Write the structure tokens for this entry.
Amino acid sequence: MIKFIELKVASDDAEITTQLINVSSIGRIYPNPQSNRKSIVELNYQSINDAPVFLEVEMSYETLRSYFMS
């Protein structure tokens, strides 16, 4: 069973960083409507100002989804 997943996350200044994400903190994943090479990952926790936390991930939706289906 996968506990963590390593994701390449795009930040606001277009810099890509690799982050280790706990799989249990991932809520939903969405295809990015602007790019078929990227996905949106919603985390199960909120930021300080009670806004949901979304990450833009440098991985296609189908590839990311396949990690959770297996």
